[in-house]
Amino acid sequence: MTRLFISRDSTALSLGAEQVADAFTQHTADRGQSVEIVRNGSRGLFWLEPLVEVETPQGRVAYGPVQEEDVAALLDAGLLEGKPHPLYLGNIEELPYFKNQNRLTFARVGITDPVSLGDYLANDGYKGLKNALALQPAEIVKHVTDSGLRGRGGAAFPTGIKWNTVLNASGEQKYIVCNADEGDSGTFSDRMIMEGDPFVLIEGMTIAGIAVGATQGYIYLRVEYPHAKIALNQAIEAAYKNGYLGENIQGSGKTFHLEVRSGAGAYVCGEETSLLESLEGKRGLVRFKPPLPAIVGLFGKPTIVNNVISLASVPIILDKGGEFYKNYGMGRSRGTLPLQLAGNIKHPGLFEAAFGMTLRELLYDYGGGSASGRPIRAVQVGGPLGAYMPESQFDTPLDYEAFAAIGAVLGHGGLVVHDDTTNLADMARYAMEFCVEESCGKCTPCRIGSTRGVEVIDRIVADVDKAKNTELLRDLCDTMLCGSLCAMGGMTPYPVLSALNHFPEDFGLHPTKA
Amino acid sequence: MQNYQTQQSTVLEILDAHRTMPGSLLPILHGIQDTLGYIPPAAVADIASSLNLSQAEVHGVISFYHYFRDTPPGKHTVRICRAESCQSMNSKALENHAKQVLGIDYHETTADQTFSLEPVYCLGNCACSPSITIDDQVFGRVTPDKFDSLLAKFKGA
């Protein structure tokens, strides 16, 4: 039986993958051809989705982008034997965009059936857990510390230190919470992992639970990701059935339970303390810190709160050791980061690379420049709270410290590309407006500052007391930066000030007087 | 608007099913909205008494989260992404087009109760902006023309 691979990833589905899969089922049945269609994750080369791969003796041969009306012609041309057709791409793993990545966390995504435990086990799945079960808790934490892994959610706090705090905290009950509230525009790596390899997240959380003595985990998932929820729940069910979750995991005597909880469309719940409030059934108001969630977290108990990619990076660290992971990267940014190319870009997709490559390499060598063919004017890195970087900064290496040094943030690794038709004063105003919309309201700089920010930007653009209002905007940004309780208000000044500093002409300001 | 009496048994069943769950309020609200399409204001009293909360606390949670609604939606809910990636691919034009074609603004429902229009901030589909969802289906690279043909398809469905 010939095996075909057609993605079940949301982006592939949004471009017609379901209809393509249905058409293959229909047409091959009509022709009496025997095929099995595997619904895999996405390889992340989204300009080629819907992508169809066929398993041949020479390896997996790809065609794309395929629409349902192409299916008959593809079968006529001999797709099942991997024969040529105008949509023929050859072995997708040989394309530079795929070949030149360092796929550690995303090793299986796009390759396996995401909800098949058999596929997972056949592709190095649960090797990390097996090793972890043979170690003492402190030894597991040491591997994570040695790997140099820092939180991939944005704050980049060392994961091993967080785990160690929870390990040493006293408490009968501890929790592992996965922050799957990926709400930053331009990011989709969490979604791709959860849809494309949910077991790797489940395994990472299970290892975390065993490392610190937590028996219950929650995945707080954004409601905007219905396909991720389906995949996670299917994988969790399979893990329970086969002794990878629940009581006495793989005969070890260890217990770990896991449940998916849905958010309800509040961006601020991506902030860890708001998320905990939300999980407890309350409004997602930010908590004061200290106490840290590692000491007083969910329901008042010691809690690890980690991002999806952080937790999904743990299985390979426990499989191959902290040193193996640490050998990728530069400076204090170790391992790999799944970068996400989005917005006005010719080749959008997911590119997992070791820290250190430059923005320019990524944008032009792999991203292929803008989708519109116009010059790239600005790139917002790290989500809606990240800075707008002008062309003069494109040689910055992708490294937490290098970005911090120029007042930018790498965050979750999302890049949103804008061509020269984008007005950066509009984007600065939108950043403030987004903060108005999404502020939890607990602290004044964020709640009131954002509303005043929209008004001040409007006055600058309308040429009302321009110099005075520009000074006022900077003052306001300073107050928000220093006085907000969390990153919502505290980082909204990043896009605003970067737009003002690098693109003053869009505010009607003289370039040298901004 | 439906009479709450016909909905109350559903609400009570959902409350009963979540009785032992820690932090159950959001799962309960999702359960009610999934089943009824919205959270009837009259249900707040039942939820509050079941969870031993004040009605103000329950109302405060419902109103805090963008996803929850307290009025019935149209037959189909259209969500348009307003975030940066979609803006970089001219989602503003798509938003204006959608509002004009539907004859409504955000948070409104067409007079024939067919479509509700909501903004959304990122669908994680940023690799093919602009994106929208209609009910649970996501669509990428949505031009005004594609929007019209999708609307026609759902109108018939």
TrEMBL record, chain B:
CDD domains referenced in this protein's UniProt entry, alphabetically: TRX_Fd_NuoE_FDH_gamma (cd03081)
Name of the protein in question: NADH-quinone oxidoreductase subunit E
Organism listed in the record: Methylomonas koyamae
Superkingdom assignment: Bacteria
Short name of one Pfam family: 2Fe-2S_thioredx
Molecular function via GO: 2 iron, 2 sulfur cluster binding; metal ion binding; oxidoreductase activity
NCBIfam families tied to this protein: PRK05988.1
Gene3D superfamilies attached to this UniProt entry: Glutaredoxin (3.40.30.10), NADH-quinone oxidoreductase subunit E (1.10.10.1590)
Keywords assigned by UniProt, alphabetized: 2Fe-2S, Iron, Iron-sulfur, Metal-binding
Binding site for [2Fe-2S] cluster: C81, C86, C122, C126
Family label: Belongs to the complex I 24 kDa subunit family.
Cofactor: [2Fe-2S] cluster
Keyword Hydrolase assigned: no
Keyword set includes Nucleus: no
